[in-house]
Amino acid sequence: MKVLIFELVLIAVLIPLNIIVKKHVPKWKGKAGEKLVKRILSKLDPESYYVLHDVTVHTEYGDTTQIDHIVIAETGVFV
């Protein structure tokens, strides 16, 4: 009987925890990845590269979208 109660309590805790993790982990990974790219791009020579972060662009449909990083150099524009 004690084992059954323990299992029910464990399930009652793990299901909401699983839902929370599945909802938030992708956001956390995205923020960590964005931070890493920002740190790497900050090491580029400012004389040769112009770096923009978090650029908001208006679309033809009246919406907006965000571009995380844009690098402008003599060799091209990298998005």
What does this 3D model show about the protein?
This protein is α+β, with helices and mostly antiparallel strands and 79 residues long. It has two domains: 1-43; 45-79, no CATH class. Helices cover 51% and strands 29% of the residues. The chain is built from one helix and three strands, in the order αβββ. The protein has one helix at residues 2-41; strands at 49-58, 64-73, 76-78. A three-stranded antiparallel beta sheet has the order 1-2-3, with helices on one face. Strand 2 and strand 3 form a beta hairpin. The protein starts with a helix and ends with a strand. This is NERD domain-containing protein.
Number of strands: 3
Instruction: Tell me the radius of gyration.
Output: 22 Å
Shape: elongated
Biggest sheet details: 3 strands, antiparallel
- How many separate helices? 1
Look at the structure and give the mean pLDDT.
90
**Percent strand:** 25-35%
Distance between the termini: 60 Å
**Given the helix and strand composition, which structural class is it?**
alpha+beta
Q: Give the SSE string.
A: HEEE
Uncertain ranges? none
What count of structural domains? 2
Q: How much helix, percentage-wise, in residues? A: 40-55%
**Order of strands in the sheet with most strands:** 1-2-3
Keywords: Membrane, Transmembrane, Transmembrane helix
InterPro entries: NERD (IPR011528)
Transmembrane segments: 6-21
Organism: Bacillus mycoides
